[in-house]
């Protein structure tokens, strides 16, 4: 339902990205949310409303959710009270970010899969939790003028999606 709303909002024709979810989930050692997979298959990776970078690609070097595990940074990323996810462990997986330095993530635990509350960290560094699906959260950020403090609809940005280039 929320992915369909995203498609209507952006006037995007689903591009039917083929993803080997078994291989992706084996690499991460955790299943990913079904609606996130649906978003990835419909949009791939790219930018919503010229402001939100969606890491929905599993290939290439742009908008790739898997890049942190394939090309780890030499210095650990500071994520406040939550560690960065390591396959098979517990931690934060960032799936989108904004030009204003907001990060959208899940806090996942490979020993307790299936719980995917959305975590959001704004530019002041505090994490907030939203108990909704990935696609609902993304839709509200982009389209709901009353979704504060992380919504961007009040800025009157064009409801667009620009796919990433490989």
Structure summary:
The chain is of the alpha+beta class and 166 residues long.
Spell out the key features of this protein.
166 residues; globular; SMI1/KNR4-like; seven-stranded antiparallel β-sheet
Question: Would you mind describing this structure in some detail?
Answer:
- The protein is of the alpha+beta class and 166 residues long.
- It is 25% helix and 20% strand.
- The chain has a single domain, classed as SMI1/KNR4-like (3-Layer(aba) Sandwich).
- It contains five helices and seven strands.
- Helix 1 (2-10) packs parallel to helix 5 (134-143).
- The chain is globular.
- It starts with a helix and ends with a strand.
- The model has no long low-confidence stretch (mean pLDDT 89).
- InterPro entries: Knr4/Smi1-like_dom, Knr4/Smi1-like_sf.
- Residues 18-83 form the Knr4/Smi1-like domain.
Please outline the major beta sheet: 7 strands, antiparallel
How many domains, as an integer? 1
SSE sequence, one letter per element = HHHEEHEEEEHE
State mean pLDDT (0 to 100 scale): 89
Distance between the terminal alpha carbons, to the nearest Å? 29 Å
Counted beta strands = 7
* Class based on secondary structure composition and strand pairing: alpha+beta
CATH topology call: SMI1/KNR4-like
CATH architecture: 3-Layer(aba) Sandwich
Shape: globular
Please tell me how large the radius of gyration is: 15 Å
Indicate the low-confidence ranges by residue numbers. none
């Amino acid at each position: 339902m929320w992915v369909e709303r995203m498609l209507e909002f952006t006037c995007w024709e689903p591009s039917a990205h083929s993803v080997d979810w078994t291989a992706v989930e084996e690499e991460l050692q955790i299943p990913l949310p079904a609606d996130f997979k649906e978003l990835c298959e419909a949009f791939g990776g790219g930018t919503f409303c010229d402001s939100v970078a969606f890491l929905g690609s599993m290939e290439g070097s742009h908008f790739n959710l898997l890049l942190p595990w394939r090309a780890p940074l030499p210095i650990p990323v500071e994520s406040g009270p939550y560690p960065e996810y390591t396959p098979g462990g517990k931690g934060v997986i960032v799936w989108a970010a904004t030009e204003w330095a907001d990060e959208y993530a899940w806090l996942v635990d490979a020993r307790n899969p299936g719980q995917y509350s959305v975590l959001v960290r704004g530019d002041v560094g505090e994490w907030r939790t939203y108990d909704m699906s990935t696609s609902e959260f993304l839709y509200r950020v982009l389209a709901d003028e009353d979704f504060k403090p992380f919504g961007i609809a009040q800025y009157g940005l064009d409801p667009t999606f620009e796919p990433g280039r490989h």
